[in-house]
Design a protein that fits this description.
By secondary structure, the protein is mainly alpha-helical. It has two helices and no strands. It has a domain of 34 residues.
Length: 59
């Protein structure tokens, strides 16, 4: 191959610079139903809600 460098590409996303930690939590069924009914991206929306509450000094 004339000394050409071969790069192996792996499927999937590139690694994020900061890895999130997996957690398990319990929620009231009515709260979970409301969040799920509001559309896709439940975990991302929860992350944004908690982050906003922390930066506003509510948590």
């Amino acid at each position: 191959m004339n000394g050409a460098k071969v790069t192996v590409r792996r499927p999937g996303r590139p690694k994020a610079p900061v890895r999130r930690q997996a957690v398990t939590m319990r929620m009231d069924p009515d709260l979970l139903a409301h969040l799920r009914a509001s559309g896709k991206g439940l975990q991302s929306r929860l992350h944004q809600l908690i982050r906003a509450a922390v930066f506003q000094g509510k948590l």
